[in-house]
Amino acid sequence: MESYVLGIDIGGTGIKAGLFDKRGKLCEKWQFPTNKSENGKYILKETAEFILEKSTGKKIDAMGIGVPGPVDEKGVAAECVNLGWGRTDVKAEMESLTGIKTYVLNDANAAALGELTEDCQSMVFVTIGTGVGGGIVLDGRVINGFNGAAGEIGHINVNSKEREKCTCGKCGCLEQYASATGMKKYAQRLIAEGMETGLKNDFEAKDIAELAEKGDMLCLKVIDFMAYNMALALSMIACTINPKEIVIGGGVSKAGDTILEPIKKYFRKFAFPSTADTLIRKAQMGNDAGIYGAAKEAIKHI
């Protein structure tokens, strides 16, 4: 009987799951909404029920799960704010609920593994969405850190003079300027200052990118501000770990060259000379990167 692994990506709005063969080929893919009621109390239970139903009749050797927060080597998530979780032993709970050997990693680390190619085994993955996340892979191995907090790129301090707090409680984090939330906030500030724009009242980050491509001066200024801060942080990372590639993913990455080109421009300006030619590219796997990476993690252990 052929056996499979599962790759699961638990997000704040939706949970994606995929059935993979042992070569890492995606066979089936499913998705359902995240139930965050009562501080995410039912998320793991409902995930377990869902995947058991979908994989009925199939032999599952292992599963990998990506969650939005720091994860230690024992599979314990320290805190997942977007889910409402405090410290949660994801590995133990999922193994108890499903009877399937489980391997847990940070969602950005899972996405980084999903983007990894044969030609590049050392890379930094940056996901730009509501916040800014990251994953670091060196020589094909995810760098998790002492307590699972490695790759928290969004909380690199890029402005020591900032007095407004980030969601983490500190001030001046990259996430405050380079996330979709930060872009929208900066645009609102420019509008309040009287700068003209074609943006409508209910605009989102994708609207900023679309109008920037059409030459809207306010939107171009927002993109420039975002790219400046992102490149500053990436230049610090590059001279610390010297990756072969920096891969930009997440919802904002859909803007393509509109954001990539200014990031590259500022990166070359800030980067240590020996790292200035680091390849910066758009992620290729889209929203499936997390389930592919989670599955790769499971396959490693069977």
Could you characterize the architecture of this molecule?
By secondary structure, this protein is α/β, with parallel strands linked by helices. The chain folds into 2 domains: 126 residues, 2-Layer Sandwich (Nucleotidyltransferase, domain 5); 166 residues, ATPase, nucleotide binding domain (Nucleotidyltransferase, domain 5, 2-Layer Sandwich). 37% of the residues lie in helices and 22% in strands. The protein has 10 helices and 12 strands. Strands 3-2-1-4-7 form a 5-stranded mixed sheet. A hairpin with a 3-residue loop joins β1 and β2. α2 crosses α3. The two termini are 16 Å apart. The model has no long low-confidence stretch (mean pLDDT 93).
Rg estimate, integer Å: 20 Å
* Strand content bin: 15-25%
CATH 2nd-level architecture of the largest domain: 2-Layer Sandwich
In the CATH hierarchy, the third-tier topology of the largest domain is known as Nucleotidyltransferase, domain 5
Q: What order do the helices and strands follow?
A: EEEHHEEEHEHEEEHHHHEHEH
Could you write a compact summary of the structure shown?
The chain has helices spanning 37-40, 43-54, 90-98, 107-115, 175-178, 180-192, 205-213, 217-241, 257-270, 289-300, and strands spanning 3-10, 14-20, 26-33, 59-67, 76-77, 88-89, 102-106, 123-128, 132-138, 141-142, 245-249, 279-282.
